[in-house]
Amino acid sequence: MWSFGKTSEVEELENAELLTFVGRGAELSGDIKVEGSARVDGMIEGSVHVKGTLIVGKHAVIKGDVTTKALLSSGNIRGDVIALERVKLLSPCVLTGSVQTPLLSVEEGVLISGTCDMVSPSSDCEDRPIEELLQQHEDYPVAASR
Questions:
Q1: Which of 6, 57, 85, 142 could form a Cys-Cys staple with 41, CB 3.0–4.6 A?
Q2: Is pLDDT above 60 for 5?
Q3: Do residues 60 and 76 make contact, with C-beta atoms less than 8 angstroms apart?
């Protein structure tokens, strides 16, 4: 689906027909479940579950756990991320939380505070409920304040 070295494929994803769109300036509170793909440019406070690809724009803020097939983010995510296929983080992305995915790409300038588990694509993640996958993660260590 993605080739991490090709910008044209990123542009294709951004221009593809999306089933759900949260525009810049929109603020949603609560858990969101999407059957297809989605793009977020606004703010969501709650968990986000997307069965397809989730694109998080550079002005977006998600305060909650994210589960998706594939994630492309240049926004701010404060929560754990589980992606069944891949995660691509583009500058100026800020991610605070754990990441579980078989394939991870991080562009220069991205800030990450948390842990990363690289799981094989053949693992049993697809057959397990999202809640069970999230419970297996312990809180990531927080740096001491200065």
A1: 57
A2: no
A3: yes
At 68 the pLDDT is: 96
What DSSP state is assigned to residue 42?
A: S
Ordered by start, the domain boundaries in the chain are 15-130
Which residue in this structure is represented by tokens 């312990």? 138
**Token digits for 97?**
């939380």
Q: Please state the pTM of the whole predicted model.
A: 0.72
Instruction: Measure the CA–CA gap between 113 and 108, rounded to whole angstroms.
Output: 15
CA torsion 72→79→19→15, rounded to 10°?
Answer: -20
Distance CA 79, CA 62 (A): 8
C-alpha–C-alpha distance, residues 88 and 7, integer Å: 12
- Determine the Cα angle at 105 with ends 121 and 84, to 5°: 25
Using a 10 angstrom Cβ sphere, with 0-12 exposed, 13-18 middle and 19 or more buried, the burial of residue 37 is buried
Q: Is 91:74 a contact under the CB 8 Å cutoff?
A: yes
